[in-house]
Amino acid sequence: MRGFRSILLLLTLLASACATRPPGIGDPVDWSSLDDWESDAHGEVWHGFLKSCEKLRRAPWRDVCELARNRGDLSDIEAREFFETHFEVRPVYAEDGETEGLITGYYEPLLQGSFEPSNEFRYPLYGVPDDLLIVDLGHIYPQLKSMRLRGKLVGNRVVPYYDRAQLTDDPNLLRGTEILWVNSLVDKFFLQVQGSGRVQLGDGSIVAVGYAGQNGHPYQSIGRVLIGMGELEREEVTLFTIKDWLRANPDRLHEVLAKNPSYIFFELRDGEAAGPIGSLNVELTPARSIAVDRRVIPLGAPVWLQTTLPDEAESPFARLMLAQDTGGAIKGHVRADVFWGQGESAEKLAGLMKQQGRLFVLLPRGYSLKE
Question: Global pTM?
Fold first, then answer.
């Protein structure tokens, strides 16, 4: 009898384990599963989707993108009907089978700077150094197509590249790669976190800088560091409270920033009006582009986002987005970072946003998740 009960318990546990959904993109669901799907202005995302199509050249993306290009400009209703006809919608699940995850935001900050160093403008933005080696592992192992190894050569060995502390302590390591100088180390750090921005020069003109490379070290959240140090409570951590703490503690600034070993290199972007370029190498669209974990969600894919805004009412925010970017902090299955654009409103939304939300990926009919 005891043996029978043991077998029954084992079968129950196995059945429970089998019932748990695996993490990642799930099976297709009906369009009615999406909150407020029919009320979104789908035409607003259409031109951004066509930009994604410029980079999506493999079947079945190639085929559906060709159909999209042939349609030209579409109204909201026509764009919605196109997606419903040629795509299927699939929910994204987290490791534990949960459907909700963290939704944050980012924006394009404005800094003050100069092409020449001075007492005021002392903090350089660096371009990609010549000794930074990038190995695309996908050329060697196709199963690692989204992974790149960054380091430097020492003799005939590839070793890790310098981390933030090393690069900060020894300016000679990056000497000669400066592209311009800014007046705030805190603003420079958060420009690296955001990945792109604009710099206003002394004559009032503005130049744009964008992500050009990274040193290969993992991103570490400074908010999490300050929580661990007991300096901030988890509930009060925002872009603004972190900035306030860093500016109020200049004697500890280098110590704390060094806890994030990741270091971003920049390049000047063409054209003052050009928006930031995401990892898909297309211009991002404010409030329609998101950064995702490309190991989970294919870059270029439309993604339906259901979350709330960081306002007092926790207003619902449900709309069609485009997975056009990635980020060092954007890791996990149900994880996204909304690009809000420029200006004070964008900064506020990006700085306060740490909402729970759901993701649904739109994939062309016939798409294989093994691709």
Answer: 0.87
